[in-house]
Amino acid sequence: MEATEATLCHPVVDGELLLIRKRRGLGAGKLVGPGGKVEDGETPREAARREVREELRVDPVGLEKCGKFDFHFRDGSVDDDSMHVHVFAADGIEGDPEATEEAVPEWHPADAVPYDEMWVDDRVWLPHLLDGETFRGEFVLNDDGESLVRYEMEIGVAVE
Question: Which pTM value belongs to this model?
Fold first, then answer.
């Protein structure tokens, strides 16, 4: 099965990281960056902007692609379990984040990210985004998604 192309966007404004608490779907209850699937005819950058708008009712400003990774579950038990994720950072937002059916916005200090409420792979790659570094990687999670089976990362690489 071909990997689903998806995006994540992490706005960081005045030292604060804007995350969402997912209300439904894969990762419901977890803190994540706004994001989702890239639609037909859409670039990853366009998808990242659209997803932030849909999930938080704000527009990201200063959108920069900083990473990409492949994300898999070991046993393949989750539908669309392989994703190729384009990761963006934004240095601002236009508007005030609002809760939607998909997500509840939460601001957290960028130097005190609540990794224990996030996907386990976030603690590996998100610090690089917060440090302004580019990265590529592959993450394989166990069946329930709560631990890493293995991962590989390259830092300081071209990601476009």
Answer: 0.91
